[in-house]
Amino acid sequence: GVIQRTPESITVVTVLRAERAGLVTEADKRVFTRLMPHVRRAIDIHRRFYGIQLQRDGTLRALDALNVGILLTDRSSRVMFANGVAEAILRRGDGLTMIRGQLRAVKPADTERLAGLIKGAAQTTIRRGEQAGGIMALPTSAGHPVTILVSPSPRLGLLEPAALVFISEPQDSLPIEARHVALQYGLTSSEARLLRALVDGKRLMEHAEDAGITLNTAKTHLKQVFAKTGSRRQADLIRKFLADPVLRVAGSQFER
């Protein structure tokens, strides 16, 4: 029986029986013919579910690659999904944490406000409210606040109201590796390390001392970097580097 026929391929199902069972009868063929539409439908449903699973897995991998924490919560602040960055932030429990599955801030007042933003955004998701969410900063022991952005969530096939919570933390350095820069711009390893040092805030002399090279050699490397990246000044070079989202994603993927 033919399951699917396309210009590129044909999918069939074949039923075999043992020789000792005898030849296939006309009655057997009629049963097989009656079953074929159901077999086709079952396989089609399987393919559709498999495609949905691939889309879901691809979406989750994309969310994990971002350098921002992303949570999906219900209207009671209960976490239904967290990407890798968000899980790491919640594990540290500094500024924002999760207790019995629900988001909590350090201060009760902040927890109450966060819960209000999430509930309002979730109600907006199902068109029972008009609150667009909001943004707030949660204090941490290190003194650098965690920034929270709450937004209504796309329905995503969910049966209950939900909200998206984006979490951002200050970073001492960006998770970008020299080899990714070298591949993108055709830099040598020495030139890529120089660019990495400049982005980290080092002066040219400091990099030369760390790398064990002369200042003149560092200046030569910088000229080559300018030529290969189409930059004229260090500020333009660093701005181009920081604005490249692909380098950020690649760095976060290989960092974990």
Uncertain regions: pLDDT < 50 for 5+ in a row? none
Helical percentage: 40-55%
As a whole number of angstroms, the C-alpha radius of gyration is 28 Å
Determine the N-to-C terminus distance.
Answer: 48 Å
What is the residue-averaged pLDDT?
Answer: 81
By DSSP, the count of extended strands is 9
- Main sheet makeup: 5 strands, antiparallel
Structural class: alpha+beta
Strand order across the largest sheet: 4-3-9-8-7
How many H/I helical runs?
9
Shape, please? flat
Query: How do the SSEs run, as a string of H and E?
Result: EEHEEHEEHEEEHHHHHH
- Beta content comes to 15-25%
Brief synopsis:
This protein has helices spanning 26-65, 84-92, 108-125, 178-185, 189-199, 204-211, 215-229, 234-242, 245-255, and strands at residues 2-5, 10-12, 69-74, 79-82, 96-99, 102-105, 134-138, 146-152, 162-168. It is an alpha+beta fold and 256 residues long.
Give a verbal description of the structure.
This protein has helices spanning 26-65, 84-92, 108-125, 178-185, 189-199, 204-211, 215-229, 234-242, 245-255; strands spanning 2-5, 10-12, 69-74, 79-82, 96-99, 102-105, 134-138, 146-152, 162-168. The chain is 50% helix and 17% strand. Strand 1 (2-5) and strand 2 (10-12) form a beta hairpin. The strands form 3 sheets. It has a 5-stranded antiparallel beta sheet. The longest helix is centred in the N-terminal third of the chain and has 40 residues, at 26-65. It is flat, with a radius of gyration of 28 Å. With 256 residues, it is α+β, with helices and mostly antiparallel strands.
